[in-house]
DNA sequence: AATATTAAGTTAAAAATTTCACTTGAATAC
DNA sequence: GTATTCAAGTGAAATTTTTAACTTAATATT
């Protein structure tokens, strides 16, 4: 595999799309080979973009033929690191937290929410998808023992920083943050903000612009 | 307000962040004026980016002084179209759908989920956050009657296209799609894919890369 | 009142990303 | 066997986006 430098962020965001599409091709359609044009077409991405994205990591296709679906899926899975399951802790057993724990398609993407925590006594002890909700007091212990690297934050914005700090102290290296707030963490910790409210605004922006020009 | 052309998508994604930050400043801190440096600092965005983003829409600050927080919030809200509430229908009363209906911070961003639908008979009639779940059969009727423009899809991937088509036929103009699949809709319909599984992969990518260089 | 400082707005440069045009290689048709 | 078509890989061009440098305006300081 080539050096992983100077690779556009946008490329890394597209790779999971390729990966899931390839998975669909493997599972539902029994095609052996797919072209960049076909793969891109299914995702609304130009074929040349598909080829360029893949070219950052190596040569996966055969000229004049296309890509072997099974092989490419395996390769992209390896590139992304989703060829193994990454255990994760989730803090915040509210509606969103519960939804994520029950979300079935994460497993395919390498995510396994192994432990759920909350500070609310009324929630501790309940089970979500067969995972018991534990007190945040034992977060550190579990993260250390099981050497968990991934943390998911689904607490309200006010509590998010505290949870993040606890996670980092426990040894978490990457945080998926659903709280609508910025987290301050050491440089070597990766944070991905999944800001739901932001997503809707771009739609509203378009709607309100549409109305204006009507 | 200036022409809304050639404005980077990234800018439109940052405006909601400014908006929420300004809202916090208005509500919790009683500062009257904020500089681009301060505003950007709170969000991890360079001051020059903040100024450039705003400059696409007009002049909102005073040189040597900064931006009036209340005024700028109002201006950005107007730009985004979140100065009014946009009623929306949500289809798919599963875990994620329920989580979104209960998500309190949407209102600030102009989204009001007014109706919830599902095709599952066991779900119809239940209430989520005081909103009764209705049969998808009456989706079209309600969307037409109330002239609703916004649709949220939280059904499984297999059902998403069908729901999207129904929405479009009913008169929906913008779709917020949580199903991990591409939707085929007419050109004038805006779709925003909120692909949860994609978000986690960029974290896993970084983690697996980190391990490799250790 | 003149000067220094602060900070928005803007133009130009730099960087990043996408698209294009081309080359190479494989399969098929003639 | 040669020609044609298909499609990956790639370097360069075009585009987009960000960053930097500069100009202008407001306030505070001496």
Describe this structure in words.
The structure is a homodimer of 214-residue chains. Chain A is of the alpha/beta class and 214 residues long. Chain A has two domains: 9-79, Winged helix-like DNA-binding domain superfamily/Winged helix DNA-binding domain (Arc Repressor Mutant, subunit A), CATH 1.10.10; 86-198, Rossmann fold (3-Layer(aba) Sandwich). In chain A, 45% of the residues lie in helices and 19% in strands. In chain A, strands 6-7-5-4-8-9-10 form a seven-stranded mixed beta sheet. A three-stranded antiparallel beta sheet of chain A has the order 1-3-2. In chain A, strand 4 (86-91), helix 5 (95-102) and strand 5 form a beta-alpha-beta unit. The radius of gyration of chain A is 20 Å and the shape is globular. The termini of chain A are far apart. The model of chain A has no long low-confidence stretch (mean pLDDT 94). Chains A and B meet through helix 1, helix 5, strand 9 and helix 8 of A and helix 1, helix 5, strand 9 and helix 8 of B. Chain A binds a DNA duplex (30 and 30 nucleotides) through helix 1, helix 3 and strand 2.
| Quaternary structure annotation | homodimer
As a whole number of angstroms, the C-alpha radius of gyration of chain A is: 20 Å
Strand content of chain A: 15-25%
Extract low-pLDDT stretches of chain A: none
CATH top level assignment of the largest domain in chain A:
Alpha Beta
Mean pLDDT of chain A: 94
CATH architectural type of the largest domain in chain A? 3-Layer(aba) Sandwich
- CATH homologous superfamily label of the largest domain in chain A: NAD(P)-binding Rossmann-like Domain
Most extensive chain-chain interface: A-B, 59 and 59 residues
What is the N-to-C order of secondary-structure elements of chain A (H for helix, E for strand)?
HEHHEEHEHEEEHEHEEH
| Count of β-strands of chain A | 10
Q: What kind of sheet is the major sheet of chain A?
A: 7 strands, mixed
Percentage of helical residues of chain A?
Answer: 40-55%
């Amino acid at each position: 595999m080539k050096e992983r430098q100077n690779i556009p962020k946008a490329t890394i965001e597209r790779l999971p799309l390729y990966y899931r599409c390839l998975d669909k091709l493997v599972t539902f359609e029994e095609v052996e080979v797919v072209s960049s044009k076909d793969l891109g077409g299914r995702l609304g991405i130009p074929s040349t973009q598909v080829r360029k994205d893949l070219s950052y990591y190596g040569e996966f296709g055969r000229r004049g033929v296309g890509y072997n679906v099974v092989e490419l899926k395996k390769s992209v899975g390896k590139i992304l690191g989703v060829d193994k399951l990454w255990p994760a802790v989730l803090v915040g057993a509210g509606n969103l937290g519960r939804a994520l724990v029950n979300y079935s398609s994460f497993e395919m993407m390498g995510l396994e929410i192994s432990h759920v925590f909350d500070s609310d006594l009324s929630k501790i002890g309940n089970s979500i998808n067969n995972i018991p909700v534990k007190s945040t007091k034992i977060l550190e212990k579990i993260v250390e023992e099981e050497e968990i690297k991934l943390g998911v934050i689904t607490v309200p914005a006010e509590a998010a920083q505290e949870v993040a700090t606890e996670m980092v102290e426990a040894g978490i290296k990457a945080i998926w943050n659903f709280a609508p707030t910025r987290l301050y963490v050491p440089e070597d910790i990766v944070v991905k903000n999944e800001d739901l409210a932001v997503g809707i605004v771009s739609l509203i922006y378009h709607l309100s612009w549409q109305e204006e020009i009507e």
